[in-house]
Amino acid sequence: MNRSVAELTRQLARFSLSVQRQRAVPLSSFSSPSFPPSSSSSAHKDSAHLSSFSSVVKSNAAGNDRPTQSFELPGLTNPARIYTFPMFERPAIVDPAPFLNQILEKMDPLSETAPLKAPPHSTPVAIQLMPRLITIRRKKMKKHKRRKRYDRDFFKYQKYHREKKLRAEREFLQRMKGHLAELAAFNPQKYVDNTINMAKKEWSEELSPSGRKIYPHWSRFMTLEELYGVEKNDYIDKKAGLPTEEDKAKMAKLKEQYENLYRKA
Fold first, then answer.
1. Please, are residues 214 and 208 in contact by the beta-carbon 8 Å criterion?
2. Which of 42, 75, 86, 172 could anchor a disulfide with 38, C-beta 3.0 to 4.6 Å?
3. Which position has the higher pLDDT, 215 or 150?
4. CA 108 to CA 116: how far, in whole Å?
């Protein structure tokens, strides 16, 4: 009983809603339905229910011209469905056109990038750092030992520098005493006489281009006879240095011996 009442109420609400839409919206606006058409069995079922309640709606519309407002009650089994204005020939439903991004392929200028490759595997090379580390360690140890030695022999170094300054001061005093002794022994008359004698001295021009003094040759002081211990004579021997007959025979014999040993094969 409750189920039949609910079904009747739902059908009445559907019919009243369709009538209101027919009054408010012109017929041309229902040319393209917004929802897909139902099956043939559901269409025949809805038309039968609409014909059974048409007399009730017409009597209400004739007696009262005021606009009515309908309320749709929730269904028990199936949810409510809203249909378009019923037509004898329903237009064919066509799928909507595809979007532009589905037709054209997306072209990205940054898509053609270089492929990423893993770096080649290479065996690690051992870096020889021991010599450098040893050098650094040696320098640090030398610095540490130097500071430690200076702290240990601080007074010794102070004594050394103090004696060095005293020694330099003694040398300075000795040099100043020498200057004072030279000043005490200075003779003005002797200094003037030496200056006048140096001004009267004649300087020779026999100097080399570099300014060095040119010393005389030994031939200006002695002759060849005195050099070799020979008596001085004005006679010039034209055959001096020529071989004699005996020397010629010896020279010929030596020449023949040389040719036999070295020149003949």
1. yes
2. 42
3. 150
4. 18
